[in-house]
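Problem 12. The chain below contains 715 residues. Write out its predicted structure in token notation.
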Amino acid sequence: MSLSTQILLGLGLGALTGIFVGELAAPLEIVGTGFVRLLQMTVLPYMTFSLVAGLGRLTYAEALLLGRRCGAILLMLWAGVLVIVPLFSLTFPDWESASFFSSSLVETKEPIDFLELYIPANPFHSLSESIVPAVVLFSIAMGVALIGIERKAELLEVLESLLGTVTAITNGVVRLAPYGVFAIAASAAGTMEVGELGRLQVFLAAHIGLCLLLAFWVLPALVTSLTPLTYRQVVGHTRDALVTAFATGNMMVVLPLVAERCKELFRDAEMDGEDAQRAVDLIVPASFNFPTQGTLLTLGFVLFAGWFNGAVVSATEMPNLLASGLVSMFGGVYVAIPFLLDMFRIPADSFGLFVTVDVITGRFGTLLSAVHTVALAILGAAAMSGRLSLHRVRLVRNGVITLALTAALVGGIRVFFETAVEAEYTGYRVFVEMDLSREPVPSKVLPTVPPAVPHEPGRSRLEEIEARGFIRIGYLRDLLPWAFVNAEQRLVGFDVEMAHLLARDLGVRIEFVKLEWDEMASALRDGICDIVMSGVSVTPARARHVAFSTSYVDTTLAFVVRDHERERFGSWHNLEPMGEDLRIAVPSNKYFLAKLRAGLPDASSEAIESPRAFFRSEEGKFDALLYSAEAGSAWTLVYPRFTVVVPGPHPVTVPNAYPMARGDPELLAYVDAWVELRKLDGTVERLFDYWIHGQDAGRRGPRWSVLRDVLGWVE
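Solution.
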């Protein structure tokens, strides 16, 4: 059984295993991650040795000939596919979606240092940090310099030996591919939700469709437009090489076959000659060191991963993606994709998803790479032998057909997934069905504001709480996800769960009291409640009336805007020219209002009592809501047509703390110490991951599996 068949078998068995055992397959992710790391281990050394040796063995005449006559053709082929890559975004359907808060929203994006990215002051640092563009430039410089070295035979022999060693390691790792792919597929199929599988179909359809379009129409049509060859000759003579490339998924093994078929094509078309033969023998092996259309098309996965995770790569970032992606692909997709995911702040675990789908899409990419090499060899050989000619009629006709086919393919994929595939939005249901992650203490929500609890002079409120056996905790309405009523009509949220933990540590039960913002200070002062735990930001104005505990989390100032306005609100600088035309809704928070006026002094603002006033307002009344990114993300789960944007360049953070009545140092000291301990023991982080990041949200039990839900063999 061939290795390619074993890999496909491993993929299928892994998917079936994941479906059969469900989440029991999750530990296999460790095996899959180990396999991916082994694959990446040899890529940079192989790229360095290959580029240096490949260029070093040429003469200056051959290098100049290759660069001058084939360089333009290679650039043309690259440009052709880089124009196609942005079309991936057009295939993504307009499915309603929203996500929990992501830390990538508030991470400061450092400006890209192009000098560091492309010019290696320290090549060893670039190698250790996987700065691929810098490594490529260094390797090319080494290879070109080696051409002029007289006694280079010994060094080339050493490089060939090193290259052979690295190749042997790679081949050894590849033999593990069936097992690594099995582990990756089983883990993914066992833990992935059905909605995620539906979204993966979009990338598979777009990638495979564009690969086939480029391989069987665009590239052959380009060759026939610039040479006397016909479509039948180009595809017919190279068919077996293309099929072999697709079957093996390995471009290297078909290089000799591609060269031989190209030379046969020239002989059959009576374009044979010594120049053409030598050109093919030079171009085909040398081209292996450069990215092909098959590898460059995988840049579409970065766009897909951004759409999949709600971190869309904007149009203004597209040139960066294409330029950095082109250079990064010199190191191969397993180096370039993680590098680009990190550059555009897309969750790194998306790479595991790429490895899974690459088992399928990689074969189509290899097919396209083979056609790319054929086209480069034919056009380069024709150029070097003086047989390149422009057929204007063919070029115009093929161009029109290409545009029509591309539009039909891209539009067809989008229309199909928007009309034929039902994509249910589940974010709202997942959020409102969240419940406390731990067993609560006895509690009740008072239907009305109760009378004040009498306070005994000379006695601390902490002693009174312990004596009466309950603590009254105030909460404020419409403060998702800190305190809200879930689908089961239970009061839940980050601070509600913290309240239960505080009551458990005090050994008392809870009475929750619903308050309005303007009642908070008086309710604490009069003893109606002992503490407010409801996502209250610390501001100078509030600190004049209440005593705040130490901060337990920091929140980030952000704008909540309609999805299509995301890019416009990305920085304060973008908004300054729009000043007077902006209408911003601001909650009852003078500190937020002051920050808005400092950043946008000319913008008009309107105070609102609840974020619902913004979300339910008629379109055009407000341009944005100034709110915290953490709470705003929760609201977008309820209203998914909106998104959260943290304006740059420097995020503004505001601490959250628990208000208490002034003049009671014992209760304040106790809560301060309690908050610090809960931060140190990981409680705050765990609750933040659950309520704010949404980790494990909506999981009422293990995911469906045949083993559990059909056979009933495990509970």
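Discussion. DSSP finds 32 helices and 14 strands in the chain. Students who got a different answer should revisit the alignment rule from Section 12.3.
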